[in-house]
Specification:
The complex is a heterodimer of chains A (about 110) and B (about 110).
Chain A (H helix, E strand, L loop, with lengths): L3 E2 L4 E5 L4 E7 L6 E7 L6 E7 L4 E4 L2 E6 L4 E6 L8 E8 L8 E2 L3 E6 L1
Parallel strand pairs in A: 2-11
Antiparallel strand pairs in A: 1-3, 3-8, 4-5, 4-9, 6-7, 7-8, 9-10, 9-11
Chain B lengths: L3 E4 L2 E4 L5 E7 L5 E8 L3 E8 L6 E2 L6 E5 L5 E5 L8 E8 L9 E2 L3 E5 L1
The chains are: A mainly beta (about 110), B mainly beta (about 110).
Chain lengths: ~110, ~110
């Protein structure tokens, strides 16, 4: 049973436009949601997170939106840049599960010049 | 600023061989983790260590053992490698094992088992 799902394996966007990456979850006990970015041959790096008590968190070009009723979150990148091309993982964690991260399958973003 | 260091970066094993993957962090973090990444599966937790001296099973622990050697080092051992354990292995650390603590990852070990 996949508790965190990223249903789009890949996304292609033109430079300067908005990239929207989506993530769905099934466990209503998750307290935090995190996005990680991964380049080839490197480990994932933390990008941005959001607490379950909020519906939006912004950090520069990156904004994460959380819709708890729909159990859905999204990562918006505006404007997209070629250097944003990477695999993006959505992850969720719950304090009552010791903060273990549950990852989605990842979405490969390609930003074309 | 090394962060999380994993060795080796690549390894090829034959079925039945044993191997230990090494991980060290220099951020004085309390918690450490081992994940495996397979195509289309995201990262799955194998084992974790909430603090020095403790280890616990994650989502996919079968076929693996771990040792938290000290606060800095957390190793993963395959006693008898199987082709199903071909994967990319990532070690990670966080200051504490809390939901709001981002984990810092190493660059991975690519392991192929023939």
């Amino acid at each position: 049973d996949q508790q965190v799902k990223q249903n789009s394996p890949s996304l292609s966007v033109q430079e300067g436009r908005i990239s929207i990456l989506n993530c769905d979850y099934t466990n209503s006990m998750f307290d935090y949601f995190l996005w990680y970015k991964k380049y080839p041959a490197e480990g994932p790096t933390f990008l941005i997170s959001i607490s379950s008590i909020k519906d939006k968190n912004e950090d520069g070009r990156f904004t994460v939106f959380l819709n708890k009723s729909a159990k859905h979150l999204s990562l918006h990148i505006v404007p997209s840049q070629p250097g944003d091309s990477a695999v993006y993982f959505c992850a969720a964690s719950a304090n009552n599960q010791g903060g273990k991260l549950i990852f989605g399958q990842g979405t490969e973003l390609s930003v074309k010049p | 600023n090394a962060g999380v260091t994993q060795t080796p970066k690549f390894q090829v094993l034959k079925t039945g061989q044993s191997m230990t993957l090494q991980c060290a962090q220099d951020m004085n973090h309390n918690s450490m983790y081992w994940y495996r990444q397979d195509p289309g599966m995201g990262l799955r937790l194998i084992y974790y260590s909430a603090s020095e001296g403790t280890t616990d099973k994650g989502e996919v622990p079968n076929g693996y053992n771990v040792s938290r050697l000290n606060k800095r080092e957390f190793s993963l051992r395959l006693e008898s490698a199987a082709p199903s354990q071909t994967s990319v292995y990532f070690c990670a650390s966080s200051e504490f094992r809390l939901a709001n603590q981002p984990q810092h990852f190493g660059d991975g070990t690519r392991l192929s088992i023939l």
